[in-house]
Design a protein that fits this description.
The protein is α/β, with parallel strands linked by helices. It contains ten helices and eight strands. The protein has a single domain, classed as Rossmann fold, CATH 3.40.50. A hairpin with a 5-residue loop joins strand 5 and strand 6. The chain starts with a strand and ends with a helix. Bound molecules: adenosine-5'-diphosphate and zinc ion.
């Protein structure tokens, strides 16, 4: 049995960034349902999903759960994993409980990145993504032309436009925020208050503190 950590928060709260840092720190693979969807082919079911994403709507629970189940069956996840962007609804959380029982894994913690709405809007408006490797950039001013990691072209996701951002926040409040109570009730919620304009390294320290992670967790 390994470690299973969920990164939870509104879009733009920093799940992806903190997830990458945790991945390195703990040597655990990260699973982002958003990345899994973006990797689907542009035709058929993939196209439908991409349209939902572009409008800031959630992909239907059955589809997300099915895709995640397939992914987590891979041996790479035997020793645990970090979930980024899943679960996003109460039915998804219940499906995760069942799936973890099947995989003989237990949920260690749900790290809740609590950022202000002003901060979220500021961040999402400046977000660009690499078309090749999915690396995410946050620009204050003029965006760079290409990815510094792989040279791929950068683009602004349709859901990162002002209208898309409003829609995603509405979806978050309605469908996803109720999970805070769900996980609080289970005693696994670890809330991190994200300060406005915080550096990712400083937020990471708060995340590690919530996970009770000194060097001892590195060895496990
Ligand atoms: P963000 O967290 O910044 O919104 P993601 O890459 O996590 O970015 O998600 C992008 C989109 O993918 C979401 O707006 C939604 O349409 C879809 N999506 C990702 N994860 C889920 C999920 N667990 N359930 C339903 N839809 C999802
Ligand atoms: Zn890239």
């Amino acid at each position: 049995m390994g470690r299973v950590i969920v990164l939870f928060g509104a879009p733009g709260s920093g799940k992806g960034t903190q997830g990458e840092m945790l991945e390195k720190q703990f040597g655990l693979p990260r699973v982002s349902t958003g990345d899994l969807f973006r990797a689907l082919p542009d035709e058929g079911a993939g196209k439908e999903i991409q349209e939902l994403m572009a409008h800031g709507s959630l992909v239907p629970d059955e589809k997300v759960i099915e895709l995640l189940k397939q992914e987590l069956a891979k041996s790479a996840y035997e020793n645990g994993f970090i979930l980024d962007g899943f679960p996003r609804t109460v039915p998804q959380a219940k499906a995760l409980d069942a799936l973890l029982a099947e995989l003989n894994q237990a949920l260690e913690a749900v790290v809740y990145l609590d950022a202000s709405e002003a901060e979220i809007k500021r961040r999402l408006g400046g977000r660009w993504t690499c078309r090749e490797c999915n690396k995410i950039y946050n620009f204050r001013g003029k965006p760079a032309a290409e990815c510094s990691e792989c040279g791929g072209a950068l683009y602004q996701r349709e859901d990162d436009t002002p209208h898309g951002i409003e829609q995603r926040l509405r979806t978050y409040r309605q469908k996803t925020a109720p999970l805070i109570n769900y996980y609080q009730g289970k005693g696994v919620l670890r809330k991190v208050a994200v300060p406005d304009r915080a550096q990712k390294e400083d937020v990471f320290k708060l995340v590690l503190k919530q996970l009770g992670a000194g060097t001892e967790n590195k060895r496990k």
